[in-house]
Amino acid sequence: MNINIKNLFLIVFPAVVIFFASIFASSKPDALERVAISYNFADRAKEFSSLFTDYAFPFINIEFLSTFLAGVSGLILIYFLYKVIGIIVNFFAK
Q1: Backbone angles phi, psi at 64, to 5 degrees
Q2: Rg (CA), the chain
Q3: Residues 60-74: pLDDT tens digits?
């Protein structure tokens, strides 16, 4: 298998960015949660359980690892979504 530097960079660079983003991820509410708290309607929000609740995997107990793996998984999902959209666009462009 022949891996060139460009392909290696395209794999390693996003993983490094996610690694450092995971280190500095805040446990404080994000902007939308902060607005809901400030305007007193956060308690009326419906609780929705998802695989990436609070940008982490809820079933992994190590916070950093949970956040990092959720980031990598999200990156992989976005990549495959991008590829599927590209295939659909190419199909209809012919």
Answers
A1: -60, -45
A2: 18
A3: 889 889 889 988 998
CB 70 within 8 A of CB 52: yes
The one-character DSSP state at 56 is: S
Specify the length of the chain in residues. Answer: 94
Q: Which two tokens stand for residue 48?
A: 């929705």
User: pLDDT tens, 4-28?
Assistant: 888 788 888 888 898 888 888 777 7
Structure-token pair, residue 86? 């590209």
DSSP state of 58: T
Query: HEC string of 26-52?
Result: CCCCCHHHHHHHHCCCHHHCCCCCCCC
Distance CA 44, CA 56 (A): 23
**pTM of the full structure:** 0.66
